[in-house]
């Protein structure tokens, strides 16, 4: 009996090891084949000696952030650095969670007909019925069956400007129609689409704009409100599975998504209030995408008890220099130009929950300058950071994945040269899912200061000038006169040119009043010197001279 028990134990251990190996193999498998040499290694990085802003309430000095395989392992002062980690010294740098935008159409296809005027076209015959094929809603502007996760395709050309403005995650949906379907949360990575998606069905979207629908109805705001209200009633009726209705895939999708966060595009103070009243009628609390004029009715806006998504698309100054043009600019327009930047501050002062978006801006690069402008009109930096990290993540239920630098979350973070909202601060790198995307890496090292610039002319005469570097893109050359040079530094190569007579001279040549130079650093300089020496030997070799003769 004793021997049999020992035999059973002896067989159990190999069996357990075999099952464990199977589980490890299964965990490592993927359905996507690698075209080339696979690299299954886990990438581990430790960012040391940084000021880490974990969230709006917690800032750590001289701290370490450790990430592995796209996830945050930990962040804290005195955190142990793993033996296999690539250590990156972030002395003097700040690390923040990447920003989140809840109102984007990144990665979505452009709807056919977008850009034309919506509503009834008097030049065309009336279109009474929908032309959409299938068992869908009777009105083309109602298409809740639209699933953004099935339409999403990563777009690096659009992702890069968003990353440069500090964003790492967006909630994307098709901005078309009255019932627009569901939104998808994605990261701004350049990996395959399946690695970008964070949450497939994160929200449901609505508006009072019929968008690209060619159907005649609705042709007015009143009609859009009536259609949206009717669809709520139809959805409730469809829950009873009426026999004579048949299958309505649109109403089925409508009912399925009512448990999701509901986002309504108001776009101005009156649109916000219209949407809130519709929501109140049917027991729905919308998250409302605002405009820029809610400050004019801030008490009514606060009474909605809604959370808001605020754009920072402030109006540009109007040209009133010419009296003939000035007479077309109303006092109301001028007051709005003056007061629009107070909108985020008014929300904060009223205690209204809100987040910020790049929506409505011509280019994402306008975002941070406009946010800084809002600071001058009442918005605080702490609230702005919350409005770009924790608040949007909480509103759509993804705070367990993004929005702070807590362990277990996606490694989405920014490395900056200072406090992120400071005007002189630059974003050096934006890491998305543990992958580095350079923004202004040349600013990692501060090269501002004065340097001796020695330039040797063709006849061997050397001249020493002072190079006054203001930033990675600006410098002055100081001699008898001060000249503004064209200067750039990308972290490895310095390029400099400054004014002279008779056009720009070659590298290392300088006329009395100026010149140009290219200063090479490290391996690049040595490589070019070696090429010059080889070329010089060939040029002066006797066999080469004979061929030339």
Unreliable spans are 1-9, 22-27, 114-119, 501-522, 535-549
- Structural class call reads alpha/beta
Number of helices: 16
CA radius of gyration is 31 Å
Question: What is the residue-mean pLDDT, rounded to a whole number?
Answer: 85
The backbone outline, from C-alpha atoms, is globular
Distance between the termini: 102 Å
The proportion of residues in beta strands is: 25-35%
Largest sheet: 8 strands, mixed
**Number of E strands:** 22
Helix percentage range: 25-40%
Give structural notes.
It is a single chain. The protein is 29% helix and 25% strand. By secondary structure, it is an alpha/beta fold. The longest helix has 27 residues, at 2-28. The radius of gyration is 31 Å and the shape is globular. 36% of the residues are buried.
Short description:
The protein is 29% helix and 25% strand. The protein is built from 16 helices and 22 strands. Helix 5 packs across helix 6 (249-256).
């Amino acid at each position: 009996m004793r021997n049999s028990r020992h035999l059973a134990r002896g067989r159990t251990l190999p069996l357990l090891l075999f099952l464990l190996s199977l589980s490890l193999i299964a965990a490592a498998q993927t359905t996507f084949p690698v075209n080339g040499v696979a690299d299954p290694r886990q990438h581990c990085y430790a960012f040391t000696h940084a000021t880490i802003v974990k969230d709006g309430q917690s800032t750590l000095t001289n701290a370490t952030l450790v990430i592995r395989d796209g996830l945050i392992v930990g962040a804290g002062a005195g955190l142990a650095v793993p033996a296999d980690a690539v250590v990156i010294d972030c002395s003097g740098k700040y690390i923040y969670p990447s920003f989140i935008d809840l109102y984007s159409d990144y990665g979505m296809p452009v709807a056919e007909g977008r850009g034309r005027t919506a509503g009834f076209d008097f030049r065309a015959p009336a279109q009474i019925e929908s032309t959409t094929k299938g068992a869908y809603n009777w009105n083309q502007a109602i298409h809740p069956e639209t699933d953004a996760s099935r339409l999403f395709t990563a777009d690096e050309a659009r992702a890069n400007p968003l990353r440069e403005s500090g964003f790492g995650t967006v909630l994307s949906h098709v901005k078309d129609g009255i019932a627009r379907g569901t939104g998808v949360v994605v990261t701004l990575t350049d990996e395959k689409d399946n690695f970008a998606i964070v949450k497939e069905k994160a929200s449901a979207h609505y508006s009072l704009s019929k968008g690209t629908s060619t159907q005649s109805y609705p042709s007015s705001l009143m009609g859009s409100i009536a259609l949206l209200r009717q669809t709520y009633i139809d959805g409730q009726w469809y829950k009873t599975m009426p026999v004579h209705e048949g299958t309505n895939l649109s109403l089925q999708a409508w009912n399925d998504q009512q448990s999701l966060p509901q986002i309504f595009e108001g776009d101005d103070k009156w649109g916000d209030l219209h949407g809130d009243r519709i929501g109140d009628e049917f027991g729905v609390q919308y998250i409302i995408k605002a405009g820029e004029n809610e400050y004019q009715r801030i008490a009514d806006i606060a009474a909605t008890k809604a959370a808001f998504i605020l754009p920072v698309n402030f109006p540009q100054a109007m040209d009133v220099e010419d009296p003939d043009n000035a007479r077309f600019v109303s006092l109301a327009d001028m007051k709005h130009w003056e007061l629009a930047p107070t909108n985020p501050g008014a929300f904060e002062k009223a205690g209204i929950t809100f987040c910020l978006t790049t929506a409505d801006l011509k280019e994402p690069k306008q975002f941070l300058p406009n946010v800084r402008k809002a600071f001058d009109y009442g918005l605080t930096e702490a609230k702005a950071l919350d409005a770009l990290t924790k608040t949007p993540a909480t509103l759509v239920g993804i705070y367990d994945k993004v929005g702070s630098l807590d362990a277990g979350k996606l490694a989405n973070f920014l490395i900056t040269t200072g406090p992120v909202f400071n005007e002189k601060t630059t974003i050096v790198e934006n890491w998305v899912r543990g992958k580095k995307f350079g923004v202004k890496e040349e600013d990692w090292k501060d090269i501002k200061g004065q340097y001796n610039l020695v330039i040797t002319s063709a006849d061997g005469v050397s001249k020493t000038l002072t190079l006054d570097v203001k930033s990675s893109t600006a410098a002055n050359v100081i001699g008898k006169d001060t000249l503004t040079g064209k200067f750039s530094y990308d972290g490895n190569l310095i390029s400099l040119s400054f004014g002279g007579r008779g056009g720009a001279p070659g590298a290392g040549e300088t006329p009395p009043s100026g010149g140009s130079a290219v200063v090479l650093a490290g391996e690049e300089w040595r490589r070019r010197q070696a090429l010059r020496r080889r070329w010089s030997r060939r040029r002066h070799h006797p066999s080469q001279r004979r061929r030339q003769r």
